[in-house]
From TrEMBL:
This is C-type lectin domain-containing protein. InterPro entries: C-type_lectin-like (IPR001304), C-type_lectin-like/link_sf (IPR016186), CLec_Tetranectin-domain (IPR051663), CTDL_fold (IPR016187), Pan_app (IPR003609). Pfam families: Lectin_C (PF00059), PAN_1 (PF00024). Keywords: Lectin, Signal. Residues 43-162 form the C-type lectin domain. CDD domains: CLECT. The lineage of its organism: Eukaryota, Metazoa, Echinodermata, Eleutherozoa, Asterozoa. The keyword Signal applies. One of its GO terms (molecular function) is carbohydrate binding. Residues 178-261 form the Apple domain. It comes from Patiria miniata (Bat star). Residues 1-21 form the signal peptide.
Amino acid sequence: MYSPELVVILAISSSIAAVMGSYNICPAQPAVSCSCPSQWQMWHYVCYRITPSPHSWDDAKTKCQDLGGKMAAPRSLEEMKFMVDLARKLDSNYHVWIACTDKEAEGTWECDGQEGREPFLEWSAKQPDDFQDNQDCAYIFGYFNDKMDDGSCSVNHKAVCAHQAACPHHSTQPRRYCLSTDTHGRILNSTCLLDHSIREFITEGVVACGSACAKEPGCRSFNIKKSEKGKKICQLKNSTSSEDKDKFQNTDYFCMYSEVCIG
């Protein structure tokens, strides 16, 4: 565990600037108080619920929209576990649709909100199998150890819906970045927030990584580290160093941590 300070930095060295790119730095802000409507449950600043009745996959997508959200697709094991817990409270032998399909091209699975990258898919053993050449939609199944299975899109199941939590000023305030520093005000370049990953990708610097975090539902912070080939890797996180201090740790490689600030 590492206890950083978040301060205003007016200048950074050229070596750090080369890694991070040009951007503004802001002091840390108090945690934002967010909320969800009745019957929705919040996880990492996103609201979730299960549809009250079963539908075909396409009708379930429409139903989620009617409820004020959209059909959800998990982006990590942590998020999938939250969905599982939500569904299991209603039925221990649940089936719930998620927003993943290979309708466009058999065997090429696409998940809503994960376009342009490898989607998160946690299949049950020997799945997907496209049984009888008629299984193009994904669901999470309690009987299959809370893993994913492919099914006929016309079968009626309940579905997981999601929408962004209501956070004061969240949509109108500009996004800026808070850097972690030591007690002498020096920027930490070998500390990372471990786990809590939504996704990671090669990036040009903090501006691109921060923009991706701002657009990613549930993103609260991000790391930028260097790969063995010197590439900058952006890791989007659904938690912060203050929310999980035990996972904010020193590393033996270059890694810089930033939080998204409001204001």
